[in-house]
Model the fold of this input.
Amino acid sequence: MSIRFRLRLVPITAAVASALACAGPAHASGFSVPEISVAGVSMANALVANPDEIGAFAFNPAAIAFHDESSIAAGSVLIGPRFSVETASGSHDTSGADWLAAPIFQLALRLNDKWSAGFGVSAPFGLETRWETNTFPPLTGTAPLPSPPFPPGASIPLSPQPTQSKLEVLDISPTVAYRINDNLAVSAGADIYWAKSAQLNSTLTAAEGDGSGWGFNLSALYVKDAFSAGINFHSAATVEIEGTYTALNPTLVALGALQPSQTGELDLDLPWRLQLGARYEFTPRLAVELNWTRTGWSEFEQISMRGDLAGAPVFVDENNWEDVNAYRIGVTYDLLSQTQLRFGYAFDETGQPDEYFSPRVPDADRHLFGIGVAHRLSDGWQVEAGYMYVMMEDRTVTGSRPYTGGGDINGTTAIAGEYDAHAHLIGLEISKSFAF
Done:
């Protein structure tokens, strides 16, 4: 009876809850991906007070109102993450995709002197990692099976180790902007989230699905001579994921130790985000922007998975993440009349406390270094390229409590180790300005 209790809770928690309670590939705290334009990659996402760049629209849609022309931009950010951990069994690296691609699309239409409209597509949340089996030591070893009907000495594994995690969330964002006067503009819009892929596996179970949810965003931008200031807010949202849960060990299902394969639902709570920024043009060529970002990871308190067979929650997993800050600086320098150099640095705090540390993607405080270039061509065309290096601080996890085999492995001695991670990001984008 005690064996059945342990196995019913642990595999599902390890496969699903732990997977979502983790960091993104290597961008900002949690599983946030704030690099939603190539200008953002180049300037460490310090763009909320920028009235000039097309790449700033994704960070503050009110900036659309300060452009005399309409524009369309498209591109991608390529992400190459690397994670490793030193555990009792040795050194291990993730074996996930070498490079991930996040889409960028932004349409801005100037309707008249007062009104503008925007439509953007980006990937503000995501993750993908794959830990090989036996990266982490067996959590509770094995348990003997009765014989008969099983052969003498047969045993069952009690080690639901995390393996593959994949989450892709797109944000489809229509907005409208209104220019109140020469100096001030405001905007409002919707964030329509589509979780196009969620795959969360362990050595004993697999879960995959997709779903959607929505929130809203509000922005304002003030520009006075060489000074500008901006604010951008995205509400919290819940993405309802529907899919399938699969038990990978039929013996454990027959024993009643694992739930049988079934369809189910999972609520993914996305955090609210508040950005404040101030920018100053020291010369016609040189401008510097400072940003502060607050991410409401306290929204990510709990994950509840409901199986269709039981009609009730399969489990309730506590995360108890914390709200965190990020501090960013971005610099632009016009090397030539058509060529702009960009630089950026940011420090992002982690919202994942030691008590709920997840091995799926080890989160930690991180430093972001960006560099890039934009070049204006003829007939309103512009090309941009950016590079960012993300360096996560090393994090040693000893386990805030011993693992007893009765529930979630996050923050326990089961995933003790020395974690290290970094990432390379490369962004390419092309845009066209035109009269509408």
Notes: Residues 264 and 307 are 4 Å apart (CA to CA). The longest helix spans residues 2-20. Residues 1-26 have pLDDT under 50 and may be disordered.
